[in-house]
Amino acid sequence: IYSNKIYDELIADDAKAELYLIDRESRETDTEENEEYKDLEKAQLEARAYGKKIRKWLGHEGEPPMQVVDKETGTKRTIQYRDIVILMRSMTWAPTIVDELKQQGIPVYAELSTGYFEAIEIKVLLSLLKVIDNPMQDIPLASVLKSPIVGLNEDELATLRLSKKRVSYYEALKNFRNADELGRKVNDFLQMLQSFRERARQGALSELIWDIYRETGYYDFVGGMPGGRQRQANLRALYDRARSYESTSFRGLFRFLRFIERIEERGDDLGAARALGEQEDVVRIMTIHKSKGLEFPVVLLGAMDKQFNMMDLRNRYLLHKDYGFGSRYINPEKRLMYPTLAYHALKQAKKRELLAEEMRVLYVALTRAKEKLVMIGNVASFEKKQEKWQSFADTQGWVLPPHERLDAKSYLDWVGPALIRHQHAENLRGEIQVETAEEIQKDESEWQVEIAHGSEFAKLDEMKEHRDEQLQKAVKEWTPVTIEEEHDPSIVDRLNYVYPHVKAAQSRAKQTVTEIKRQRETKDEYSSDQLLVPYRAPIVKRPRFMQQDKQLTATEKGSAMHTVMQHIPFTHEMAASDVEEFVEHLVMKEILLKDEADVIDVDSIASFFKTEIGKLVIEADKVEREVPFSLTLPAHEVYNHWKESTDEQVFIQGVIDAMIPYEDGWMILDYKSDQLPEGKESLELVLRERYQTQIQLYKIALEKIWKEPVRRSSLYFFNGSLLVEVGNDGRSV
């Protein structure tokens, strides 16, 4: 076995390939306290070993973090979770490994097709739904009472049961009348349950589920648990599946629960909701087959001792593409069945092919790592494995004997005997001497072999329970929690960071002339502040195409008037009849809609031509109409509240209605369709102040962009045929 060739080019301090074995054999020194490892599954032990390695590489065990080579820059950087992948022959152990790593605070991603109904948050919610459907079910009810939704402990559950023994748990719950904390919890739960039961009968199932999330706070609670994002995604998936179920012809809570029960009875399951993607900073778990063609900085090859799947070799008959058919011999009289010679031959041939495929898969796994490869397996008794492997210490050839390779039942049965002859495998050899060829013993590849006992991983539960108890006590007593963290100062700095340009973040980087005018608008008794803040109209009306009375808004009427003035010819004076005919022409050309044409004030437009400025427009050689512009202005000129030391630039956009050549410069003309107040003194002064900002911005834009002066600025109000001159005194915006 050779390490990946990239090791030859690396200068990493820890680039040795590793073999990490977990010994599950009982020891005489084991006490009752450290014998808990015997109750752990093999997958749990390995997952805890993965977590130990990962935390060490990330620098969480008091050691400096591991350095890896960045594939983009080719330079060293600190390892991240995304650099680590766990390869498995199959995903059977994956759900257990995911749970264990999440308990250790390690973000992990695995594409699973099962495990949804086994998730604790889904079990609790389904139990609550069962109780809502039928509260006489004791086990689901006890599950909900023990869950964080109600939060009763074992003693309180026993107190409820003993209060009334001969009835169902729900009846005992309803008859519990104690005036203590337990009684308050029970009363609150019963009221909540009654409310949910009423809604289950009257409303949609999906709405009920979402109400449960919101009112119980359970959705937020699971978000704070290890793997909170995944748990919340599972709860959202339950809501989505309830909505999908209701989109069919089936309805109701009872039918939905029966649908779930039938899935479970068939032994089927649903994949956990996808909360984390492969591109996020997570440790990935995948099969060796899926890793083909990929490379990763660090690879953990797990389940090295898991036995090969030989089920196909145990069938009553075997088929081979070259050797044909072979079956067991059955003697019906003596009621015996035993393999035939053909069966043995086909079995050996198929076994060779199966092991050859497993060798190819192992080769794929061993060549996925670019910088660090760790193989992890656990054995029932390392001492017995060692005795078996020691017989290979004097094997002279590079390749293990064929019969030994055929006897292998796991990857470890190949790796162990091959590695025991290497100079770095003292832990595997024990006290025996290596008698193999020197070139094999002193091969240039570098290895690290470590043997750990299973009892080392039993203490993780105790440490976690102790930490959880301390945290729970601190939360209840409102006492500060002491956190020993290497990066504590940087965390405090980040949490206390205040963005230095708050005003810039609160002010828009792009504005229109109209909005700036509104912000600077002079207030009077006809003014309002409602346009100065973002306005969201309530949805209380039907869309216009569905309304019977399709009236145009004031803004739409003003736009229609501007459209007419944009296209009307300024070659001669037009009477009201001429304007009306021109409006009909615009309707025919589909420039105006019929509804818009009906609101055009033709008399006001005809009056415009009779004014002094109307005659000026007719006499002009050319008139620029609907001239768009864009420019940037310093923020302090746009915003009165701007007090920042750095002056940002604000992007301004606007459209000038008309520009007329005037005295070696230009005259700005802006049309207004506002409703003018009646009987107000100094009306022109008020209007001039109201639109001073807008006209000043037009003037600045025209002079900055066209480099030509503005000699005059005027406002023409169609309502009242009023012409207002706005002075060009150069006043600041």
Ordered list of secondary-structure elements with their pairings:
Layout: E1 17-23, H1 42-57, E2 67-69, E3 76-78, E4 84-88, H2 94-103, E5 108-110, H3 120-133, H4 138-146, H5 154-163, H6 169-174, H7 181-202, H8 205-216, H9 218-223, H10 228-246, H11 253-265, E6 283-287, E7 296-301, E8 317-320, E9 324-331, E10 336-339, H12 341-366, E11 369-379, H13 382-390, H14 402-406, H15 412-419, H16 426-429, H17 438-441, E12 447-453, H18 459-477, H19 488-495, H20 502-506, E13 510-512, H21 513-519, H22 554-567, H23 576-588, H24 594-598, H25 602-610, H26 612-619, E14 624-634, H27 635-638, E15 649-662, E16 665-672, H28 683-706, E17 710-717, E18 722-726
Parallel strand pairs: 1-11, 1-12, 4-6, 4-7, 5-6, 7-11, 13-15, 16-17
Antiparallel strand pairs: 2-3, 8-9, 9-10, 14-15, 15-16, 17-18
3D architecture notes:
This protein has 733 residues and is of the alpha/beta class. Strands 5-6-4-7-11-1-12 form a seven-stranded parallel sheet. Strands 13, 14, 15, 16, 17 and 18 form a six-stranded mixed sheet that branches. The protein has a three-stranded antiparallel sheet with strand order 8-9-10. The chain is elongated, with a radius of gyration of 41 Å. About 2% of the residues have low confidence.
